[in-house]
Design goal:
Length: about 150
């Protein structure tokens, strides 16, 4: 039985998430795993969702964020396809990054997660939280954290 049958790679705009994708590619090649590349476009938790429906500038911001996320995912997808790895891309909206990752683990039958850690500390970690820490604590599957 392949313990790494379906790999989830969490991708954001950081170079560390690209490093996580490289590690996932190595594992997927070795174990002939399928891969899902995921980006989460989160709603700012400090502002009500209704605000976004009426503010054209914010709506445009989210549309641009999704466009950029899809471009990143499709660029990375090519690396997996060149290595004959079955790969799909997925964009999730309206939840925190850790919720998006954890929900995808459950809904898509993920067996292992790869993600980068930005290494936030102190006040920045207290205010923004640590996506990697949340996923590591709550996921029921192995989580590989790639550090800067």
């Amino acid at each position: 039985m392949n313990n790494y049958e379906h790999i989830l790679v969490a991708i954001d705009e950081s170079p560390i998430s690209y490093a996580a994708a490289e590690h996932a590619l190595e594992l997927a090649t070795a174990f002939k795993s399928k891969v899902t590349l995921l980006s989460v476009i989160a709603v700012d938790p400090f502002v009500g969702v209704d605000f976004y429906k009426i503010a054209p500038a914010i709506t445009e911001h989210f549309m641009k964020a999704e466009e950029n996320a899809l471009a990143r995912l499709n660029e990375l997808k090519l690396s997996f396809e060149r290595n004959d790895i079955p790969v799909q891309t997925k964009v999730v909206h309206g939840v925190s990054p850790s919720e998006g990752i954890l929900n995808t683990v459950l809904s898509d039958g993920i067996s292992v997660v790869f993600m980068g850690s930005h290494g936030r500390t102190g006040l920045e970690k207290a205010v923004l939280g640590s996506v990697a820490q949340n996923v590591l604590n709550k996921a029921k599957v192995p989580v590989f954290i790639i550090k800067q």
